[in-house]
């Protein structure tokens, strides 16, 4: 380790110490309430009882919409970089059997998390992550499609969350409510609809990202399980 | 009720999803979306020009709980320029990209457009971070569209640098939120008191944004990324994406960190800007390739924008208004001129298959409209009258001498001289005898349609004629912006 490295480490430590001190100072020097109190107070009006979901899908829904757009940009960027990587070999009997157990359980758990997000920890991002994991497991065990639909449908799927989210917002605006201003009576169902679409999109996006490129429509070149049968 | 602020963001977002779902019709969907988006943005700007400012509380919660979109004269000015340039790039892209690349270009391009309008209309510090993420990812993906290894490497670096910039910005936002308990820019400005925290947050947020704005010496990522991207994308990166970061610096400087952003910080930005002007212009002069010249010229032009900050920090209100107007005029002129230059460079590259400046003679001579475009872009980049740059530089010189900071004047003069040199070096090709000696081998020149040449010419005309002779209303639009 040369002088230069020690210098860089010293400088970074100094910056870190300054940041920590300023943060600590702000933390203890602050008398008033932050937004958490206000948000908790308004949760009953949001249509859901889980405060995190209330913030993500109602109070700051516009941020969440743009975050879904970020995921869309990521998968479109991956697709623009070339075709998918080659698939894996089909799984042996033990992994194959395990996969046929694990994947349905993951899908079931995703559905549960999606529903429970309204009143307890859960929601679209968690549920979508489980769906994505199911896709990764399928791909690892030799299923070339990673459980994803054919490309034309997949193209719809990755944008479904943004599509439903934006259309809901615009429909409410056309009805005179303002963009993404849910009426109290239907807030719960609108949020559930948006979250369902977002779950499918997030799951499809994460599984498709694992293919590391645009799926190749003709899968005849990939090794199919049972394809060697005479 | 029609909320133009929302439509300027929601329309391109929807268009992107539809274009991604229907790749066979991506161009038609993309162009229709481009027209509708531009219409929404222009309508929003028109309302601002007539009524002063616009604000829209998304979700109906209002600040501090919800997120708002807001537009004042500064947002409106950049919104108009960005959307017109983006519309021009969209028309150009119809002809520029081949079928395979087209279906990748349109959805990403519309997402980039969404995030640009999002940046200009954001009124919430965290929302700015989200729009910056969308901007960075879509911009890097577009820059790497050609798929060539050097383009992918340059744009991967661009992506990582952009992530570092937004994370640094986010760290500053987190500190501010800890202290102030709000993310709304207006409410945060009311609660902000000068102190160690305000200074630290200012340094972090400014640092992150300067990295994205490519201010010297943080410009290292820009020339390779911008020069390797397809021309239509280079135009957007140089003219619009970099401007978004500069806009945010200006917005935070005036609306949030007023009590913290003093003459010291202004002087620092001025020195870096001066270095950018000299270094960027010199490298542009020495560049072998036209797109690299244009990219280094962007480094220099960003430098000019930051030369205004030391003067803005000390100027009394009437001078401040003059300076702010000149700064915005320079940003708008550069947006139109640089987009036009990159689009013209793309046509030349298509015509002869390369963009080596010294061998571009036959290409320029065979495309007189493109030659005229290059000339007009040159006029705007140098700052010859009647371009908007001329007026902006004139005000910058007058104000710096008036404020007793004469040392910025030689920087402007050196930059202008170097800009003349690199523009003449390029344009000399259009007249040089060496080029005439070249046999006019028609077969070697790829055909270029008229529609493809129109956007670049119109953009440079706006930069030189419209903004130069008709830039006056800009000062009226910007009235009341800032503290």
Fold and architecture overview:
The complex is a heterodimer of chains A (230) and B (483). In chain A, 67% of the residues lie in helices and 0% in strands. Chain A is mainly α and 230 residues long. Chain A has one domain (48-210). In chain A, α3 (51-59) crosses α4 (61-80), α4 (61-80) runs antiparallel to α7 and α4 (61-80) packs parallel to α8 (187-210). Residues 220-230 of chain A have low confidence and may be disordered. By secondary structure, chain B is mainly alpha-helical. Chain B has a domain at 262-483. Helix content of chain B is 77%, strand content 2%. Chain B has helices spanning 4-21, 26-51, 73-96, 99-121, 125-143, 149-180, 185-191, 196-213, 222-228, 231-255, 263-286, 290-307, 309-314, 317-352, 361-366, 368-382, 388-402, 408-431, 433-437, 450-469, 473-477; strands spanning 54-58, 67-71. Chain B has a two-stranded antiparallel sheet with strand order 1-2. In chain B, β1 and β2 (67-71) form a beta hairpin. At the A-B interface, α1, α2, α4 and α7 of A face α1, β1, α4, α5 and α6 of B.
| Poorly predicted sequence stretches spanning 5 or more consecutive residues of chain B | none
The count of DSSP E runs of length 2 or more, i.e. the number of strands of chain A, is: 0
Helix count of chain B? 21
> How far is it from the N-terminal to the C-terminal residue of chain B, by CA?
31 Å
Number of strands of chain B: 2
Helix content of chain A: 55-70%
Low-confidence segments of chain A, given as residue ranges, are 220-230
Number of helices of chain A: 8
Strand content of chain B: under 5%
Q: How confident is the prediction overall: mean pLDDT of chain B?
A: 92
């Amino acid at each position: 380790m040369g002088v230069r490295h020690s210098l860089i480490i010293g400088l970074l430590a100094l910056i870190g110490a300054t940041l920590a001190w300023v943060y600590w100072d702000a933390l203890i020097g602050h008398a008033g309430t932050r937004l958490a109190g206000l948000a908790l107070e308004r949760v009953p009006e949001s249509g859901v009882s889980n405060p995190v979901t209330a913030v993500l899908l109602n109070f700051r829904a516009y941020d969440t919409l743009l975050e879904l757009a970020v995921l869309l940009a990521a998968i479109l960027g991956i697709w623009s970089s070339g075709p998918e990587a080659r698939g894996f070999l089909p799984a042996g009997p033990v992994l194959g059997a395990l996969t046929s157990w694990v994947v349905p359980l993951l899908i079931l758990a995703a559905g549960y998390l999606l529903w429970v997000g309204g009143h307890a920890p859960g929601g679209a991002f968690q549920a979508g992550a489980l769906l994505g994991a199911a896709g990764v497991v399928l791909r690892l065990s030799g299923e070339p499609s990673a459980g994803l639909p054919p490309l034309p449908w997949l193209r719809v799927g990755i944008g479904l969350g943004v599509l439903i989210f934006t259309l809901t917002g615009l429909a409410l605006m056309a009805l005179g409510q303002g963009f993404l201003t849910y009426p109290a009576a239907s807030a719960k169902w609108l949020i559930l609809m948006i979250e369902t679409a977002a779950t499918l999109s997030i799951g499809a996006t994460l599984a498709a990202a694992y293919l590391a490129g645009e799926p190749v429509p003709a899968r005849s070149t990939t090794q199919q399980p049972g394809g060697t049968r005479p | 009720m029609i909320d133009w602020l929302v439509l300027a963001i929601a329309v391109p977002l929807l268009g992107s999803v539809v274009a991604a779902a229907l790749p066979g019709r991506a161009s038609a969907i993309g162009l229709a979306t481009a027209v509708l988006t531009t219409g929404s943005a222009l309508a929003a700007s028109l309302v601002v020009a007539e009524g002063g400012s616009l604000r829209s509380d998304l979700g109906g919660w209002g600040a501090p709980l919800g997120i708002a979109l807001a537009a004042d004269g500064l947002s409106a000015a950049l919104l108009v320029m960005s959307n017109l340039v983006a519309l021009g790039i969209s028309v150009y892209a119809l002809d520029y990209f081949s079928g395979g690349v087209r279906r990748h270009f349109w959805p990403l391009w519309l997402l980039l457009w969404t995030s640009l309008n999002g940046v200009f209309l954001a009124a919430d510090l965290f929302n700015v971070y989200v729009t910056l993420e969308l901007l960075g990812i879509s911009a890097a993906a577009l820059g790497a569209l050609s798929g060539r290894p050097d383009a992918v490497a340059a744009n991967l670096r661009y992506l990582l640098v952009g992530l570092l910039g937004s994370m640094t910005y986010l760290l500053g936002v987190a500190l501010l939120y800890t202290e102030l308990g709000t993310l709304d820019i207006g409410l945060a400005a009311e609660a902000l008191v000068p102190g160690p925290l305000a200074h630290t947050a200012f340094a972090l947020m400014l640092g992150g944004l300067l990295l994205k704005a490519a201010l010297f010496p943080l410009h290292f990522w820009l020339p390779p990324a911008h020069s390797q991207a397809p021309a239509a994308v280079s135009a957007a990166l140089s003219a619009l994406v970099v401007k978004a970061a500069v806009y945010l610096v200006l917005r935070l400087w005036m609306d949030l960190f007023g009590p913290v952003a003093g003459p010291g910080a202004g002087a620092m930005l001025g020195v870096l800007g001066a270095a950018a002007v000299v270094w960027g212009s010199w490298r542009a002069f020495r560049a072998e390739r036209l797109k690299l010249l244009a990219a280094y010229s962007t480094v220099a032009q960003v430098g000019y924008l930051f030369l205004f900050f030391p003067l803005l920090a000390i100027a009394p209100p009437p001078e401040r208004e003059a300076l702010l107007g000149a700064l915005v005029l320079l940003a708008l002129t550069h947006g139109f001129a640089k987009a036009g230059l990159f689009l013209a460079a793309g046509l030349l590259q298509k015509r002869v298959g390369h963009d080596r400046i010294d061998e571009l003679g036959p290409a320029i001579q065979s495309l007189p409209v493109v030659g005229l475009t290059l000339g007009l872009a040159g006029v705007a980049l140098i700052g010859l009258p009647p371009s908007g740059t001329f007026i902006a530089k004139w005000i910058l010189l007058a104000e710096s001498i008036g404020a007793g900071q004469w040392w910025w004047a030689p920087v402007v003069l050196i930059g202008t001289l170097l800009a003349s040199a690199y523009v003449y070096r390029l344009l000399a090709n259009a007249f040089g005898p060496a080029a005439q000696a070249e046999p006019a081998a028609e077969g070697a020149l790829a055909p270029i349609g008229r529609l493809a040449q129109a956007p670049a010419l119109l953009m440079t005309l706006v930069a030189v004629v419209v903004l130069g002779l008709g830039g006056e209303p800009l000062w009226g639009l910007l009235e009341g912006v800032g503290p």
